[in-house]
């Protein structure tokens, strides 16, 4: 099997995923998964698509992660892995979609508006 590339995004985070057959090693920015994401919850989020299809030990995942915070990065990586798995086997798409791993979360930070301190907050109103 050749390598498969996919991109996952969430908030400001971008995960470029390279999936190839192997022993289940996940490398993020040249570091192992447990070093990059010390939190077991974030490790679980990253592995969700692989565990859903019971192929966690079948593929090696090499990732270039950029931008955002650690939660956004973990969810961007989850989407990238799910998209790569669908490129390998399109029949898996229905299973992954049912779990919600194929949907790009569109929520991002709202821009700051001029004449206001923040995106929605207004300056204090003064009658006199």
Description:
Helix 2 runs parallel beside helix 3. The protein is α+β, with helices and mostly antiparallel strands and 128 residues long. The chain is 34% helix and 23% strand. A five-stranded mixed beta sheet has the order 1-2-5-3-4. It has a single domain (4-99), classed as 2-Layer Sandwich (Ribosomal Protein S5, domain 2).
Write down the overall mean pLDDT.
93
The coarse silhouette is elongated
CATH top level?
Alpha Beta
| Residues in helices, as a percent range | 25-40%
Number of domains: 1
Poorly predicted segments: none
Major beta sheet, strand line-up: 1-2-5-3-4
Which oligomerization state do the chains in this entry correspond to? single chain
Strand content: 15-25%
Secondary-structure-derived class: alpha+beta
Rg from C-alpha positions?
Answer: 18 Å
Count of helical segments?
A: 4
| Beta-strand segment tally | 5
Tell me what the CATH architecture is.
Answer: 2-Layer Sandwich
Order of helices and strands: EEEEHHEHH
Largest beta sheet, briefly?
5 strands, mixed
End-to-end span in angstroms? 73 Å
Task: From the 3D structure, determine the CATH topology.
Answer: Ribosomal Protein S5, domain 2
Search tags:
128 residues, alpha+beta, Ribosomal Protein S5, domain 2, five-stranded mixed β-sheet, 4 helices
Blueprint (SSEs and pairs):
Layout: E1 4-10, E2 13-21, E3 26-28, E4 31-32, H1 33-36, H2 40-52, E5 59-66, H3 70-88, H4 93-99
Parallel strand pairs: 3-5
Antiparallel strand pairs: 1-2, 2-5, 3-4
